[in-house]
Amino acid sequence: MSDRTLVLLSRSIFTGLSDDPFDGYIAIRGNRIESVGPAGQAEACLHGADEVRDLGSKTVMAGLVDVHTFFTGWVLRRIGADLSDTASVEDVIEALAQWKGIRQQAPMALGMNLPEALLGEELVTALDERYSSTPVVAFTNGAETCALNAAASSRYGFTPDACYAEKIWRLMRDYLPLQEVRDAYDDYMVMLNSRGVTAIKEMCFDDYYGFADEMARREQEGELTVRIDMMSQPVGYGADLDYACSARDRFQGDFVRFSGFNRMTDRGVWCGLAEMIEPYEDGADAGAGGKTVVEEPEWDLIARELTAIDKAGFRYSLHCQGDGAVRKTVDMCEGLAHDESGKLVNRHSITDLENSDPADLARFGAMGGICEVYPQILTLDAREDCLAMMRRQIGEARLSRSWNRRAMVDGGCTLCCGTDLPLLIPHLGDSIYSACGGYFADGLEVNPQNAVSIAELLRAWTAGGAYDLQREDDIGTIEAGKLADICVLDRDVFAVDPKEARDIKVELTVVDGRIVYES
Q: Sign (positive/negative) of CA torsion 385, 389, 391, 392?
């Protein structure tokens, strides 16, 4: 390990140990923080330093931790024939043929950015005629729907109406081994580093279909610039504890680790698929006899898995969007192993929490629960496009408990931040705008009483994420002795009105003491 020294000077250093930034310095030696202190004590560190960066009033903080990412989804939007300029079925067939022609080893043909106007029977018929035995899938922009031939339907088992990540796992087995996919991990890390992200919790379906070998190779070769905590998401089969034990034993390095499982429960309130405590008022469940959710989550399976996972010493993150799903998950956690102080022995978490009851959040906080939220989520929609539907379905009173990060913090939960990448790409400015200001994409706000402060949000992106990854002794705060994972923003974010925060950018990212990104 190099003994190189780097000193960062700034009038806005946020260590995460208090709410206020200060004028000071950070001295880095090799891959660790050697000392941190006020500006008046920096002189001794400056003499003999290999590099000194005076950052003015730009905020310096620990590196961001994104606790919910999907490389499998991100890369799927970047491989395959680009169909964005195709104007006819013939154009699509030709573009797919060119892509497949130079990838003889690929067991399928893939396309992306298919214009929705070309979807339909004519295209499907043409794909069947041209590719009778080779599976072909052409996704629209954002992979929200697709066209696929009979061979693909047979091999992969999903449909254009349900081609989201949990449904296309069989396709992942075919595209993850491609060399271009493995090479794309370089671009993935560059993108994350450019957003100040230095660690992630990566959702890896089942046993990751051989891609864990790529993670092992990259760590061994020293190629990683993002710390990765892998979580198995059971989709092809149930939670595989034998695999989890072998992965935990295999991955114990500074950059790659394995810690547990992730699973969906319900889905969005806005589309009527969230499990609510009370019945939907109208909308999707208007004639459903008072049901609280259209698609019943597999609660019996989830309860059995949670018990087994907890007993084996792993953690489980459950993706809950409705207050009913949150309540059932908290109820289940109450029956798990607790320590003498009443905290969960294993760090189980709830992800998303689109709508939640503050009383359940307080119960979860009392047992040391972790809430993994999407702080940028409001930036996807205009206010009334989102709220009008939710208001009709669950009413104004329950709507007021949506995106309630304030109750999570006040209830004692550990708050941390994810993006569900590629749904969102990490962006601290958008996070401040949405989670601190409560603003939608059109600048209109919702539930300002549920917002958090800038300091609380930065702490969630850093210390909260480190705790979620069980790495709070290594990263997450700026302290002497910790690994030097640091993010520098392009201004003093504590002087920014949340409504004006969306253009905040990352100036510099340091991982393991090395500058891995500079604007």
A: positive
